[in-house]
C-alpha cells in the first residue's frame, strides 16, 4: 500500500538562519499511529506545520495521499485535521459555532449530525452553547480536537495534545484516538510523555536538531535499542567482582550489596541460568532479585544524548 | 476537492464569522458612528452651516452629507477589515485559515466582502440619520450605490493590507490615524475644493479621497470638483493597486507564513 504521507528531503531554514529541518525523509502508513518524539526545538512542530500548510518548506516535497501539498493544496489539506499545540481559540464564539465554522472552512456542507457526534464523543455536547472563553483549559483542548475532526479528516495531527491536561482527559483522548484509528484514520502525534507514545504508537520517529535519527516500529525499536537488567540483592557484600564471572557484563552497586547484570533486549535470557549456577558454585548468596526492561524513555534519552 | 473548485462553504464560513463579530459589537459598530455623524451635523450643519448657507446652489447641511457618509465608509472599511484579519494573527487562530483548503482569493473575498458589507450597511444607516436633519436628493441612485460599493470594497482591501502588515495594535491604528483621517478631512468632505486658494487646490488633486467624495457627491447633486469619469478611474486604479499588493503578500507569505 502506498504511504498516506510521503516526505522527501524536507528542509526548512527560517529567516533567522535557524535550520529547523535538515533533509527529512519520512513515510507515514495509512491507518497507523505514528509517534514523533524529540526534545523541545527539535523540529516536530515545524514538520507538522509544513505538512499542514502553515509554514513554507525551503526545500523538499510532501505528498498527502498522492497530492502535492503545494501544487494540489486543496486535495491535500481537505484530508488533514490539525490540533495545534497552543490553546488558540476564538474566545467569543460558542462551541457549536466554532466547530461549524471549521467544517465549512474545510469545504464541507453543514452536517449537524456529524457535529453532534463529534461533540458527544468529546463530552462537549452539554457545553455547545457556551462561549469558549468560559471553558476550562481542558475543555478548550477538547474544542480544538473537535474543530480538527469537524470535516471528517483521514489524517489527524496531534501536536502535544496532552500537555497540561488532567488524567481523565488524557484517558478520554487516548480512547478517542484508538476509536479513530479503528475507523481508519491515520494519526501522527508528538508528545513529551514518552510513556504515552510507548502505549499508543505503532511506530516511532525520533527527531533531534532537525534530523530524523530513528524511525522504527515501536516493538522493534524497544527490542533493538532496549536493554534489560537483572539486579541481585546479595546476602554478603562483595568487594570486587570475582574473575570467574568475567563472562557476564556485571557491575557492583550499593557499596557491593547489589550485583547488576545488563544485557541487550534481543539476547533474550542471555545466560541467566548459567550465571545463577556459577554464583551458587562460588557461594555468593542473594536474598532478592528483580529484572527491569528499559522503557522507551530510556531509549529516547540515550539516543538523544549520544548526539549532543 | 481540486484546486479549480471554489470553496464556497469556506468563504461563507469566514463571511458569517465576521458578520457575527459585528452583531456581537453592534453598539460600537453602529451606534458610535451614528452619534459621531449627528455631532458633525450639529457642529457643521447647524452651527457653521447657518453662516455658509449654500454651496453651488445646495444647502450646506445637505452638501456635506455625501462627504460624511464617505468619511465613515472609509474609516469603518479600514477598521473592519484590518481588525478582522489582524485579530486571528494576534490570537493565533490564523493557523486554521492557513491550513484550510481555501485559496488566497477566497480568503480575500470572505474578509473583504464582510468588511465591505458592514461599512455599506453603516453608510446607509448614516444616510438615513442624515435625512432626519436635512432634505436629501439622490439624482443618480445607481451611481450612488456603485460608488458606495466600490469605495467600501477598495478601502476594505486597503484595511486588509494594513491588518496583514501590522505587527501590533499600535501599527494597526497608525495608518488610519496618521494618513487616512487627514486625507479624508482634506478631501473635500466639508467644502468644495473651489473654495481653496489655487495652490492648495492643486495639492488637493493628489489626494485620492477627493475623487471618491467628488464622485459620490455628484451622484447626489450632480456637483463635482473633478469629472465623474476621473473619479471612477481613480477609485478603480486604487482598487487595482490594493489587489496587486494583496496578491504579492499572499504569494510571498509576507508576515503570514514563515
Keyphrases for this structure?
heterodimer, A: about 300 residues, alpha/beta, 6-stranded mixed beta sheet, 4-stranded antiparallel beta sheet, 10 helices, 14 strands, B: about 260 residues, mainly alpha, two-stranded antiparallel ribbon, 2 strands, about 0% strand
Descriptive overview:
Chain A is built from ten helices and 14 strands. Chain A has helices at 44-52, 73-78, 95-105, 112-121, 137-149, 167-182, 194-200, 218-225, 272-281, 296-306, and strands at 5-13, 19-28, 33-37, 59-64, 67-68, 80-83, 155-159, 186-190, 203-208, 211-217, 227-234, 250-253, 258-264, 286-293. Chain A has a six-stranded mixed β-sheet, with helices on both faces. A four-stranded antiparallel β-sheet of chain A has the order 2-1-4-5. In chain A, strands 12-13-11-14 form a four-stranded antiparallel β-sheet. In chain A, strand 12 and strand 13 (258-264) form a beta hairpin. In chain A, helix 3 packs parallel to helix 5. Chain A starts with a strand and ends with a helix. With 258 residues, chain B is an all-alpha fold. Chain B has ten helices and two strands. Chain B has a two-stranded antiparallel sheet. Chain B starts with 7 loop residues before the first helix and ends in a 6-residue tail after the last helix. The model of chain B has no long low-confidence stretch (mean pLDDT 88). The A-B interface holds A 14-15, 52-56, 71-78, 80, 82, 84, 86, 88-93, 97, 100-110, 147 and B 1-3, 5, 7, 9-10, 12-14, 16-17, 20-21, 24, 91-93, 95-103, 253, 257-258.
